[in-house]
Amino acid sequence: MSSQFPLCIPLGDAAILFQFSHGIDLAVNAQIQQVAFALRQRQPAWVRDIVPALTGLAIHYDLSMVPQDIEPATALSTLMTECLARRLPNLDKLARTITVPVCYDPSFGLDLEAVAEQCKLSIAEVITRHCASAHRVLMVGFSPGHPYIGGLDARLSVPRLTTPRPIVQAGSVAIANTQSVVYPWTISGGWSILGRSPMRFFNPDNNPPTVFSPGDRVQFVAISRAEYEQSLQTPNR
Amino acid sequence: MTALVLRSGLLTSIQDLGRHGLQHLGIVPCGAMDTVSHRIANALVGNDADCATLECTVLGPDLLFEQEVLIACYGAQFDARCESKALPMNRPVWLPAGSKLKLGAAVRGARTYLAVAGGFQTPLVMSSRSTYMPAGFGGFEGRALRKNDRISLHAAVSDLSQARLSRLSRRGVKSSGALRSVAWSAPSLTLSGAQHAGIRAIAGRNFDQFDAASQARFFESTWKISSESNRMGYRLLGPELQRTKRTEIISEPTCLGTIQVPNSGAPIVLMADHQTTGGYPKFGEVASVDIPELAQLAPGATFRFVQCDLNAAVQARRAMDHLVASVCQSIAWEF
């Protein structure tokens, strides 16, 4: 990280974005996650949200709670400098490992064959490499619990589909470029689908309500069609 | 204590001041589109600011209150009636048991907030009662109200609400349609109508990526709110905004009021139910002080943007907060 970073960019009068890099870099993103943990320990009462993202971190605040003599951008920049000057918390200790069962059955893995062809690998190798990659949640956003997962094996890098699908079923596990995703909701999408997970990725009654949090490690585990069907029957999954 | 929905209206949902602290999990605060009106509606019935209200959009619902109730409608002016009587807006109103309230159509503004003493009672979901319709949680079963829904009202009301309720109910006949109100009303703060000065906007993080003509056009043009607008975002019709280079933008956090411009060149202003992150260029950010006023503009309405710097936006917002607090204080004194 060069000394110009993090850049402090106000997003209107309700948030500050601290940008740590121009492109996506796994080491920088890990540092963003560490900073997010450190900031949470020391956040002023007027800060509402700390949102670690792919290349930066946003701090949302409630201006009506900010004392008159405090200028949010200055106060948050000082806080950021203080956090960075200290030893940051160890992400490997704070992060959880989320195990995600995936059924790579061709009826779910609609693009498995095409991906294998593009990468010049067998389907079995694609699955092995997807499960063996050191995945980490870089950001959760777009919709509740929707993870942006980095760390995909470089051999599996494929561009986005030329024509996005109008409907991608919830639970679908997909890849594009250097990332993986698990769709918590049925939406449209242009990523290559490798399989489907029977997990429920968002439940408003759980605490936290989402399976993925930023910084979590993700371990995909291949399951059979029978195991997939059985998991669907599990109550309160 | 319940209210029965006889007719749903166009889009009626339970809202409060939002669920905060969960944006890192992709969960947006949501909540009332016009938080100033929501706050004052609550103040008018003696509630705390975060009690749940009904956000009624453009065409309001018909409701049957089975018990006597203290209500207030604040925000957009609606052609509201209770039985044969016009319902006065912006003030506390006592309705006897069995009253049928027809909120009617908006005459000015887009959203009115119906508050009841004690607040609407739905389960707290992640510490809020706000309805987040895109994912179907919060509020009443995670959706807009429908005919025959029966919404609970908190039986316990504040001392302030009880005092007002007793004073109004003591007077005169208690038959349905015999609503009782007060002689004063709260001033409208978020309806600027035709004469409004414009919605203040601050240049955004990607403002420099747009060509000079687009930067100028944005503040010179009249914008129309498209019919495809909703609580997630307002799509604006007007001149196209062009970027000088179309570099891919990495998805990053967005805010309430972010003005993003997809490749079509037509801006979208992110509103209460917006996505927490997005990959479109950010042309600007609406000053938070003007979000309530923008929320009162319905599809088809036109307005202009006025450029403003961050410092001016902060000052204006602080002044508005002060004004809202003093209006709420005067209402409490009237009780």
Question: What can you see in these coordinates?
Answer:
The complex is a heterodimer of chains A (237) and B (335). By secondary structure, chain A is α+β, with helices and mostly antiparallel strands. Chain A has 2 domains: 7-92, 2-Layer Sandwich (Gyrase A, domain 2); 95-233, Cyclophilin, CATH 2.40.100.10. Chain A has 6 helices and 13 strands. In chain A, strands 1-2-4-3 form a 4-stranded antiparallel beta sheet, covered by helices on one side. A 4-stranded mixed beta sheet of chain A has the order 5-13-6-7. Chain A has a 3-stranded antiparallel beta sheet with strand order 10-9-12, with no helix packed on it. The termini of chain A are far apart. Chain B contains 5 helices and 23 strands. In chain B, strand 15 (223-225) and strand 16 (233-237) form a beta hairpin. In chain B, 18% of the residues lie in helices and 28% in strands. Chain B has 2 domains: 2-189, no CATH class; 197-325, Cyclophilin-like (Cyclophilin), CATH 2.40.100.10. The mean pLDDT of chain B is 94. In chain B, helix 1 (35-44) packs parallel to helix 5 (310-334). The interface between A and B is large, with 46 and 43 residues.
CATH architecture annotation name of the largest domain in chain A:
Beta Barrel
**CA gyration radius of chain B, whole angstroms:** 20 Å
Number of helices of chain B: 5
Beta content of chain B comes to 25-35%
CATH class of the largest domain in chain A: Mainly Beta
Q: Determine the mean pLDDT of chain A.
A: 95
C-alpha geometry of chain B: elongated
What structural category characterises the helix and strand content of chain A?
A: alpha+beta
CATH evolutionary superfamily of the largest domain in chain A? Cyclophilin-like
Distance between the termini of chain A: 41 Å
The rounded Rg of chain A comes to 20 Å
Give the number of domains of chain B.
2
Give the helix/strand class of chain B: alpha+beta
Percent helix of chain A? 25-40%
Helix and strand run of chain A = EEHEEHHEHHEEEEEEEEH
In angstroms, what separates the terminal alpha carbons of chain B?
23 Å
Strand order, largest beta sheet of chain A? 1-2-4-3
Give the SSE order of chain B as H and E letters: EEHEEEEEEEEEEHEEHEEEEEEEHEEH
Specify the number of helices of chain A: 6
